[in-house]
Amino acid sequence: MKTRLLPLAVVLLPFMAWSAENGPLSAWNASPAKSQILNWVAQSTQQDGPDFIPPDQRYVVFDNDGTLWPEAPLTFQLQFAVDEVNRLAPSHPEWQDNPVVIAAQKHDMAALAKAGQQGLMTLLTLTHSNMPVEEFDQRVDAWLASHRHPRFGCPYNKLGYLPMRQLLDYLRDKGFKTWIISGGGIDFMRRVAGEMYGIPPEQVVGSFSLTEFRLTDDGTQLEKTMKGAFYNDEAQKPVSIHLFMGHRPVAAFGNSDGDVPMLQYTSANKQVKPLGVLIHHTDAQREYAYDAHPSASGKLINGLSLAPHYGWVVVNMKSDWNQVFDPAQCSYHPAK
């Protein structure tokens, strides 16, 4: 009896289908964006290839708000500050005439936005300073344990984007070192980065202010202050990368015009073939859709116009991701 040999493509088809669905980036749809990212990784790690990047140069940077987790309707840290003001206000009658506190108590986001940078600094001063670093950590942990996102109904630290967590794991498996370079507060992000993203505290860089060292009866203490505040956004991101990381990245991931300088700095790396990626929020049903008119932050206009010039990959959240959140972490089901 003659055995009939099937074409190789037919034999491999079930495996190929399984691989696409259950591979390291299973939350990503098969798309040009996914292919570009995977091809860059493959070329960068091919030992004898022309685009090989030595392991000691494989530094990759990620924005956080809007890139690794949502930033709407407020950035999570700003929501934390608003909630903290409301929690603490009854114990601080001296705050009762403060317009920023009044706006936070009324959840008047328009008034908070109108208060601008000065209003934000007031809010952060009241909720992020004049306490030991350990107390701040405890406050963040308590907030994460007791508050849920108003739309998704899930704890904030369960709302990391599944496709991006898969990408972080995949890059690390290939020998890349993953860093967060964000406008969010460095101490706030360090409370979540390890569990959510597998990124240790020393690889988290954000906005910061100086702490003060003190001797105490039972040891030492670092006190949070607002002195020397450094807002790590826009042109400050390359500055903080040089200051904290000491290497020019080989790849950068962002989602807003505030990330453009970081991507430009990375794209100017002449030692390697770099990668730049922008996450475009296009999915109003499963997350949010915005670019020119964000609900809170994360405007993306300049970045989209510059992407073709620099060869940056633009990830369309609606069409490039088959999952937004990990269903094992957050069982949010958008209305059909």
Rounded mean pLDDT score: 93
Counting helices, strands and paired strands, the structural category is alpha/beta
Rg over CA atoms? 22 Å
- Helical residues, percent: 40-55%
Mind sketching the topology for me?
Layout: H1 8-22, H2 32-44, E1 59-62, H3 76-88, H4 99-105, H5 109-128, E2 131-132, H6 133-146, H7 162-173, E3 177-185, H8 186-197, E4 204-207, E5 211-216, E6 219-224, H9 236-245, E7 251-254, H10 260-267, E8 275-280, H11 302-310, E9 313-316, H12 317-320
Parallel strand pairs: 1-3, 1-7, 3-4, 7-8, 8-9
Antiparallel strand pairs: 2-6, 5-6
Helix pairs in contact: 3-5, 4-5
Concise description?
The chain has helices at residues 8-22, 32-44, 76-88, 99-105, 109-128, 133-146, 162-173, 186-197, 236-245, 260-267, 302-310, 317-320, and strands at 59-62, 131-132, 177-185, 204-207, 211-216, 219-224, 251-254, 275-280, 313-316.
